[in-house]
Every structure is written in C-alpha cells, then in structure tokens.
Write a structure and sequence with these properties.
two-stranded antiparallel ribbon
Length: about 300
C-alpha cells in the first residue's frame, strides 16, 4: 500500500532540509505545506527538492489545518504526518507501513522517537483528565515517577520497547490510515498547535480503531523548532478545548482553575523568559471563563 509523506513547515528551513533528505526519492509521494514562512523555506524546497509537491498557504492556519491541506491533496493509502524537525532512521517509513498493513484495525501507528543525541523521547500519552493535569501542572508526578497513579498522563510504565496500544501518540510522526481518516474526519482545525493529535486519536478510538506504538521503526525528533517551546498558553488552551469538546464546559472550567493554579506556581518557581511565559499564561487563564477563553482570538 502506498504512503504519502506530509510535512507542515513554519520557519524551520534548516531542519526541513534534514527531514526531506530522509524521505525524498524513496518511492513515496512527498507533500510540503508551508504555513507562510518568512525564512525562505518555499524557495529552498523548490530549488533543492523539485520532486516535492509544495503548497504555500497565505497565512499560518495552524498545524492541524496545514496537515489537512496536505492530506486532502495526497494520493496514498497511508498518510505519514512528519514534523519538519524530524526525520526517519533508515527504512522506518516502509517499516511503519508494513506493520500497519499487518494490523487492519490500526488507524494510527507511531514509531519510537529519539532525541538528536540518540536517547529515548517518550511519545506515549494518556488522555487528559483533571487528575492527570494536576499530576503534571502541580508537579505531583515528581513524587513517584514510576507509579501509574501519578504518571498516567505520560504513559506510566510504558517501556517504549514493545508493541502496545496507546491512548494517543505524540504527533511528531504518525502513520495514519486513509480509510480511517475518511471515516472519522481529518484534524479539528479549532486546535491550532497542541492537542490536535490527542483529539484525533480519541475520535479514532471512539470509532473502534486502534492507536498502536511500533518500536521497530525509529524517528529522530528535535522538538519545538517552530515555536521554541514558548507556546505554553497555546498548550493549556489545547487542554481546555479537548475537555470542553469531549467532557463538557463544566469540566473545562474546572480545568481552567487547576491550570491557573499550576501556571501561578510555575511563575513563582521559574525566572527569566520561562517565568514570564508562565505569568502570561496565568494572566490569560485568569481573564475569563473557559468558554470565553476558547472563543477569544489567539
């Protein structure tokens, strides 16, 4: 079965070169959707990778929206959604596709992610709940990092060495079955950058499909290249949107209060730019109800 590689780029020109070098001319359709980069990315793609199908969007519509554009024009039986700061190791793409073909109930297959230094990048996650958000944002998981009760948000006890079913997988590299995506729909574009894969995996699982982790394929992921790790507000907005959509507005409001406490705690513990990031999120979380915040512009 055929694979279409879809890469969404936003001001990650240098990383994108490494990404495309790993997937171009390997027998797969490759689509790059550029979210209005200002670093010369489109020109680079046209010059260095003429076989790539390039789509230039007039504005940054978000990660999910960019991937949707790429998937809508792709022709493969599988979509490989690959971050611009990630690259498959060896024949990882073919390995993922072969594994997916062997598991007809799998909508999503994720590889073993590695940091650039070769260490494991933990990619298995649990769906957000109030308790799980509390264990993360109030640092409770630090009390007993090996326990499931305090670490389910980060896939506690998941060894990342064996094939396992997961709630959801980190979206740096996901192989997605076209037939499953056509059944449940593409990314919800109300999620701008974070939690869009959480929502998608949740919808796949609700429809009876599986989300599988496959350690037999490896992908290196730099992480945070397009946003520098500074979009904490957008991250908590994603949590609120997921809970509002799947658990209702009252649960989202409870989460807003919890996340506000967590942001204020972090703003005290951290200084400099990082501390200001948390203070900014705290001001935003304190400025209205969850429903009002989700309706407000970014």
């Amino acid at each position: 079965m055929s694979v279409s590689v879809v890469v969404v780029s936003y001001n990650v020109r240098d990383h994108l070169v490494r990404c495309l070098e790993a997937v171009v001319d390997r027998g797969h359709e490759v689509v790059v959707v550029d979210n209005a980069s200002t670093d010369g990315t489109p020109g680079l793609v046209r010059e260095r990778f003429p076989s790539v199908r390039l789509v230039e969007l007039p504005e940054n519509r978000g990660f999910g929206a960019g991937n949707n554009v790429g998937m809508e024009i792709s022709t493969g039986d599988w979509y490989l959604l690959l971050n611009a700061d990630a690259w498959p190791v060896g024949d990882a793409v073919d390995g993922l596709a072969a594994f997916g073909d062997e598991h007809p109930d799998a909508a999503v297959v994720g590889p073993r992610l590695l940091n650039p230094d070769g260490s494991l990048q933990r990619s298995v996650r649990g769906f957000p709940t109030l308790w799980r958000l509390a264990t993360e944002y109030l640092f409770l998981r630090k009390l007993a990092p090996r326990t499931r009760a305090l670490n389910a948000f980060y896939g506690a006890r998941f060894d990342h060495e064996s094939v396992r079913e997961a709630d959801w997988l980190y979206g740096a590299c996901l192989l997605v079955r076209r037939a499953a995506a056509e059944e449940v729909g593409l990314f919800d574009e109300d999620f701008f950058l974070f939690s869009e894969e959480t929502d998608w995996c949740y919808r796949f699982r609700e429809a009876g499909w599986k989300v599988l982790f496959f350690p037999g394929a490896e992908v290196v992921h730099v992480g945070g290249a397009s946003h520098g790790g500074l979009m904490f507000r957008e991250n908590v907005r994603g949590h609120l949107r997921f809970l509002a959509k799947h658990r209702g507005p009252r649960e989202a409001e409870r989460a807003r209060r919890l996340l506000l406490l967590g942001a204020r705690l972090r703003s005290v513990l951290f200084r400099g730019e990082r501390g200001e990031t948390y203070r900014d999120a705290a001001r935003w979380l304190a400025s209205g109800s969850a429903s009002a915040l989700l309706e407000s512009p970014r």
